[in-house]
Amino acid sequence: MLLRRGNLVVTRDRALLVGGVLVLLLLGAVLPYVTLGYLDPASRPVTGTPRLFGAAGLLGGVDPTYLPGYRPEIRSDYNLALNFAAAGPGLQQIGTVVAVLSCWALLTDEINRIAWWFLHLSAYPLLLAGVPLLVGAVQLHGLDVDLRVGPGWVPALVAGVLVWLASWRARSRIDTYGSF
């Protein structure tokens, strides 16, 4: 036991788990998420390589007419593919913020029911973020858009697995309010 202060009981295993989740979420936030080639307003080629918190804005905010090789007759296909791809980092952002704010609950002997639910539910966007990202990337490749998926979503996927497993393991520690 590393620390005991009331309900907060920091054991080596719990500290390693929470530390690992936080490191993985930080890696997911700082590694390059996507690389997209597009044209700026002056029609110069630009390559954007945002991290997590800029990727959804780039993918969801780029006008398809600024993509090299844009074909107006299939604009809806471009919009659909960009929206799918932008949903991935959007989901990961939500899962990352909620997991960071609620992972402290894994350190306590009795976990508050609401904190447990927030922690548990934060795993799902982390687990699912890669699906729309990869579906959108495949669609954009089919439209000959220069999009490369970076490694930023992989640590979040691993963190999602850890959070999901840890929350199920910690479920037996949810407070029962038996004294009320």
TrEMBL record:
Keywords of the record: Membrane, Transmembrane, Transmembrane helix
Domain of life: Bacteria
Keyword Transmembrane helix: yes
Ranges annotated as spanning the membrane: 90-107, 114-140, 152-170
Keyword Transmembrane helix attached: yes
Stated name of the protein: Uncharacterized protein
Organism of origin: Microlunatus spumicola
